[in-house]
Amino acid sequence: MPPSVGDLTLIHVQLPPTEAERLEALFRSTEDRKLRDRLQIVLMAHRGRARQDIARRTGLSKTRRMQEAFAAHLRHVGRTYPREKHPRVVLLIDNAPWHRGRPVDEALAENPHLEFKRLPSYSPQLNPIERFWKKLRRRATHNRLFDTLADLKTSLRASLCYFQTVRHKVKSIIEGRPKRKTNK
């Protein structure tokens, strides 16, 4: 767990002095905006700046960071399922803001065999994984108070291990139709 001061989480990167000087010189001399942004993040972390401060100063919002992470995931899927063996790979996604944007468009352009099937807005009942998350949360976290993040992680891991032993249940949760609410 990174150190924190109050409610601010700190990111600290320990760089040798010569490496920090080299990165600072590169930061001052490069015209590549993407490289400058990444160097700025590393240098701010080297100086022990709070994560929120780094995000605010670099202009990388949570949505932008999530877009870049999702784009990296798409590239990974593209490598795992190459076009030669899998001419069409369909990904079921919701309408989260990080599922669209320039980084995602660039990743899709690099992997034209990937395509999205978007779920309608405000329809978590149609997303199969939502039913599993509901069961996992109920088993791992409901009516429990965790003293530390480590305790929460332990509970989640234990629940995931349980679901690995009852794969038929997971399959029926994901494949099953959501229960309809009946009016009485």
Can you put this structure into words, describing what you see?
The chain contains 8 helices and 4 strands, in the order ββααααβαβααα. It is mainly α. A hairpin with a 2-residue loop joins strand 1 and strand 2. Helix 4 runs parallel beside helix 5 and helix 6 crosses helix 7. The longest helix is centred in the middle third of the chain and has 19 residues, at 62-80. Residues 1-10 have low confidence and may be disordered.
What are the main properties of this structure?
single chain; 184 residues; mainly alpha; 3 domains; two-stranded antiparallel ribbon; two-stranded parallel ribbon; 8 helices; extended; disordered N terminus
Mean model confidence by pLDDT: 81
What can be said about the biggest beta sheet? Answer: 2 strands, antiparallel
SSE arrangement, N to C: EEHHHHEHEHHH
Helix content: 55-70%
Structural class: mainly alpha
Number of helices: 8
Query: How many strands in all?
Result: 4
Number of domains: 3
Unreliably modeled segments = 1-10
Neighbour order of strands in the largest sheet: 1-2
| Computed Rg | 22 Å
- First CA to last CA: what distance? 49 Å
β content, as a range?
5-15%
Shape: extended
